[in-house]
Amino acid sequence: MVQAIIDISDRANRVLNLVKAKYDLQDKSDAIEKLASEYERKEREGEETAVKMQLIQKYESKIPFTKSEEEWMEKFDWHPVDEKPVKHSYIKRLKRISKGKFVEARDLDDLIK
Predict the structure, then answer these.
(1) E-strand spans in the chain?
(2) Considering Cα of 58, then 62, then 68, then 71, what sign does the dihedral take?
């Protein structure tokens, strides 16, 4: 753990006190840690969004993905097609199917009868 003596404004001090109270933290060091981790998370999300936008453009242009892009998509369990809206015709078809006739079966023999 790194120890540091810092000079902060009164406003920054009030913000740290608010963060400390809001998250029931023990001290201002914990509040700084919380702010730093939130900043890091938002930066990472921004980077992910940028990569996703590039992959969506590539997908729509029908340009093949590189191996590293495919690995990235696998790592995040994401594909550009995930961002496309579901077609209205498919939703209508699913609703029609869900209203259909169903047979209750406890095992395979019940279905064969």
Answers:
(1) none
(2) positive
Number of alpha carbons in the 13 Å side-chain half-sphere of residue 10: 0
Q: Is 89 exposed, middle or buried (0-12, 13-18, 19+ CB in 10 A)?
A: exposed
What is the full per-residue pLDDT of the chain (113 aa) written as tens digits? 889 899 999 999 999 999 999 999 999 999 999 999 999 999 999 999 999 999 999 999 999 999 999 999 999 999 999 888 888 998 898 888 888 877 777 888 877 76
Contacts for 70 with CB less than 8 Å, ≥ 6 apart: none
Q: Are the C-beta atoms of 6 and 16 separated by less than 8 Å?
A: no
Parse the chain into domains and list their residue ranges.
10-112
The count of C-alpha atoms lying within 13 angstroms of the C-alpha of 15, restricted to the half-sphere facing its C-beta, is 8
- Dihedral angle at the C-alpha atoms of 57, 63, 68, 69, nearest 10 degrees? 30
